[in-house]
User: What shape does this take?
Amino acid sequence: MCTHRPECPSADRPDHDAAVIVSAHPEQGWYRLCNGTIVFDDTGELLPDGRAVAPQRTTGRVDGVNV
Assistant: This one.
């Protein structure tokens, strides 16, 4: 799917978020990457094979201290 050089990482690689944004819809809160992944503002993702990746929420704690 990617025509960039070097190629963007495929959606099944751990670094798949490093792919180039090919369609941006910030007003709707999502971006489509070159590898077919859709990334949402809340850090959730929809992979090209239909799997959903839950948002990566933080606990609001740093070294045991509430922040």
Summary: Residues 44 and 55 are 4 Å apart (CA to CA). The chain is about 0% helix and 30% strand. The radius of gyration is 14 Å. The first strand starts at residue 21 and ends at 25.
